[in-house]
Amino acid sequence: MSSQTIQFLQTCNSDAEIDIVRLVDCVIIDAVAAGASDIHIEPWENSIAVRVRLSGVLNELVHLPSDLLPKMVGRLKIMANLIGHETQLPQEGRAPTFPEAGNVVLRISTFPTIRGEKVVIRIFDPKGRSFDLEGLGMEEETVAIFRTMLLRPTGLILLTGPTGSGKTTAIYAALHNIIERSGPSISVATVEDPVEYNLPLIAQSQCNPAREYTYPVALRSLMRQDPQVIMIGEIRDAETANIAVQAGLTGHLVLSTIHASSTAGVFARLINMGIEPFLLASSIVGVVGLRLIRRNCPVCAELYDPEPHLLQMIPPEIVAETQFRRGTGCTSCNHTGFSGRVAVTEMLVVGESLREAVLERTPTRRLQEIAVKDGLKTLWHMGLRRVMNGETTLEEIMRVIGLEGF
User: Is residue 90 domain-shared with residue 236, that is, in the same domain?
Assistant: First the structure.
């Protein structure tokens, strides 16, 4: 996996001979070639650990001498046009790359630690990213319901899940679907922090807190721009939440993301932000919960028996009829047993019974029960279905989803 970096280091007889520019380039090239989403460059006790995130899991790429850290960080700051001498405050910037690295775009973030600055690089590949709803890896029934929601002229559609769960890709795919259907006859605008990909026929705006251009400021201005569809990168505060809800009630289709413990937990999160339950019941049309799980390598996957304590969590009839599969590791999957990722979703559609429960400030657990009674398939249920189909392992479902909805 680390061929370029290792090969380059082997040509250097000492640390003094290492060309920092080429070293940083090699790390980026290796990460892109491996299909990594992030690069972590972190000072450990006796070395610089360079790790890459593959299919949501960190893997060690190479360890470098500690004295190279200031030079590597300095090079990355130059690439991202950051302040080179500032080492005590976090900084963020973007940087283009070069053909050898696939011309990807990097979002570079520095963070001060007691051993020196840690750098995390998010890799964006505009060319390799498809925003087709069918290509997201969601279940067919989820895509069908999602498409139906996007046909609505008004209302609020929320996506929830941890960082790296595919929310941004899904929301961009939703916008792409709307534009594909309506073309230039519809006005679509976004407020993001940051804008990760440029989308055609959409007015995208990037927040700039340093200039006091925040989500609320941008949204108040945007409401005077005659938009029909509004995408808000993330609902983080009460003011943004209030504008999003009001927009969904006043003739706009609003899409956004929010961090919550579950799809049903979104209502409690917004109520805690000071939004009145009757506004939520009237504006929210659906909540999509997202997780990404690693898919078994199709080359080396074979039958296996999960641990007994895991099998106890599954109904005996499902255990009896399921042929559990996992990858053993081969050259095709870098000996991980997994190849790529697939989505597991929880699609909560807000019906009349759920609206009434929200109006009564019903606890989250009870809201979940009502949603399940109305047909909600939980993350656990959908993940278990992936296991039964041989797409992933029971251990992977437990790692990513845990016992949510169990």
Answer: no
Residue 13 belongs to domain spanning: 3-124
**Residue 373 class from Cβ within 10 Å (0-12 exposed, 13-18 middle, 19+ buried)?**
exposed
pLDDT at 131: 86
Binned at pLDDT 50, 70 and 90, residue 196 comes out as confident
Question: Is the bond into 90 cis (omega within 30 degrees of 0)?
Answer: no
Question: Quick check: 377 pLDDT over 80?
Answer: yes
Q: Are residues 282 and 351 in the same domain?
A: yes
Taking the C-alpha atoms of residue 21 and residue 43, their distance in angstroms, rounded to an integer, is 19
Of 406, 346, 355, 343, whose CA–CA distance to 375 is shortest? 346
Question: Is 263 part of a structural domain of the chain?
Answer: yes
Same domain, 151 and 183: yes
Element (H, E) at 308: helix 308-311
In a domain, 406, yes or no: no
Residues 138, 120 within the same domain: no
Quick: pLDDT tens for 271-314: 999 999 999 999 999 999 999 999 999 999 999 999 999 999 89
* Residue 404 pLDDT level (bands cut at 50, 70, 90): low
362 shares its domain with 335: yes
Q: How far is CA 293 from CA 7, 229, 262, 384, in A?
A: 32, 30, 17, 12
Please tell me the total count of domains within the chain: 2
Cα 307 to Cα 399: distance, rounded to the nearest angstrom: 14
Judging by DSSP bridges, how do beta strands 57-64 and 48-54 pair with one another? antiparallel
The CA dihedral of 231, 236, 238, 241, to the nearest 10 degrees, is 20
Q: Angle formed by the axes of helices 3-10 and 20-34, to 10°?
A: 150
